[in-house]
Description:
By secondary structure, the protein is of the alpha/beta class. It has ten helices and 16 strands. The protein has helices at 14-26, 48-58, 76-79, 84-93, 127-136, 156-163, 202-205, 255-269, 299-314, 332-342; strands at residues 4-7, 31-33, 40-44, 67-69, 98-103, 118-122, 140-141, 169-172, 183-188, 191-196, 212-214, 243-248, 274-277, 289-292, 320-325, 347-349. The strands form two sheets. Strands 1-8-2-3-7-4-6-5-9-10-11 form an eleven-stranded mixed beta sheet, sandwiched between helices. The protein has a five-stranded parallel beta sheet with strand order 14-13-15-12-16, with helices on both faces. α7 links the parallel β10 and β11.
Amino acid sequence: MKTELIKIDFAKPLSGQLSLPAKILAEGGLVAFPTETVYGLGGNALDASAAGKIYAAKGRPSDNPLIVHIARPGDAEKYADTNPLYEALAKAFMPGPLTVVLPKKEIIPFSVTGGLQTVGIRCPGDPVARELIRLAGVPVAAPSANVSGRPSPTAASHVADDLNGRIDCIIDGGEAEVGLESTIVKIDGDRLILLRPGAITPEMLRTVCENVVLDNGILGKLPEGVSPQAPGMKYRHYAPRAKVYLVRAENEEQADRKAIAFFRARLAENPQVGILCYDEHLPFLSGENVYSYGKKEDDLAHSHLLFDCLRRFDETEAPAIYAVIGKTEGIGLALYNRMLKASAYTVIYI
Ligand code: AMP
Ligand code: MG
């Protein structure tokens, strides 16, 4: 199939530019669109066959549920049983990078929820995404717009690399600001279970609900046979082709000096190895595949650039990738979670 590419001109009104993709969605087709987290691959969430097309285009296992995107936080009640805690979360963080898992209403097909009785609801912060959903007139089921197992796409070019010819349309709205997928929480009585960390951090969630617990799958490998509560977390995700090793200083003292020495030793063994370091390390390292993901203290830059860096490594012959990792507070928790998965939990302490 021919994939239509639409580049958004932000100087012009959005609605005219989005009328074609909105029509494609309403008629059961697939449209990749920008959000503030990563690019999504959207289909009509009320249409079981559109969901089937999403799974097929991505090569995604059909027990891995899709998040349902809405244009207004208040639309959630049409598709799920909401409650006062949902309302409080919506008031604080929506539109924005937060998905809330709620009991689903009948109108949402089981093919969208991977057979679950619950549905993940999100109202994206990106105005292009919201206007597209509003114009389509239907809720939009959308996982990340990558082929399963590849890093999530943070630019339209990433989507085209993975899905050109397999979907109807790609909307190019520039780089995704956050760069990591949404925070996912499940409401469980008066507590929140954090299923996937993201830009809405545990600290932020605690301003709305004191009782936030982290799902076991976030920082550790679950024992054989135990399923995480967010089904997607069980798949090997976000992984470049080369083996990734995380490099973590045991303490802050001399952390940069130790990281530089470690990277130099790996580059001396093989100048082709992939290095993901901080800007501060760059002057001391030379090699073909040395990339920085921002200044050491700039955790927003790290999140924004991580998946792009992982994809860039895939275009090289790097036999292995060594990636520095820092603090795990704030959005650092989400970054660490994604990097643990990319590395299959391989951490080298220095
Ligand atoms: P993606 O949009 O590709 O990041 O994937 C969405 C992820 O959200 C899935 O892989 C699940 O882990 C999670 N998810 C979506 N719906 C639910 C749900 N009803 N219950 C638990 N987790 C969910
Ligand atoms: Mg995904």
